[in-house]
Amino acid sequence: MFTRISDIDRLFGTMNFLQKKLDNLYSDYGRSSGYRWELEQTFPRTNFYENGDSFEIRAEVPRLEKNDLNVKIQGNYLEISGTRESDAPEGYKTHKTERGIGSFSRSFTLPADVDSTKVEATLKDGVLYLILPKHEAAKPKKISIS
Predict the structure, then answer these.
(1) Which of 53, 69, 131, 138 would be 82's cystine partner, CB 3.0–4.6 Å?
(2) CATH architecture of residue range(s) 38-85+100-138
């Protein structure tokens, strides 16, 4: 079977086209890109802990004030949202923004229900501290055997 050179050229041309499309899609991986996937998936960055009677979440929210943040909890669903405004001085033209501006939202499904009336939230040095006490029904109880 004979293969023409033009068929091979067309095959490699198609492969080069696909490679360029993929390169454009992932060229800014790890940096803020036009798609903004990185910022939306990982902001705010959080640590999540449990100490028997409660959960604790620490979320990095640099440059945000408490008025910029919203925390909602219902049962075992937690949502942290807010808005970060541009810090460009008035009259300046922005050429590149890597620190992220605009609205964000991050939600979590906790392992147990939380007593929303006893939640404590503190903002200190760009870190949001949330102490989420477990609902009484979700706390383990020791049963004595008679």
Answers:
(1) 69
(2) Sandwich (2.60)
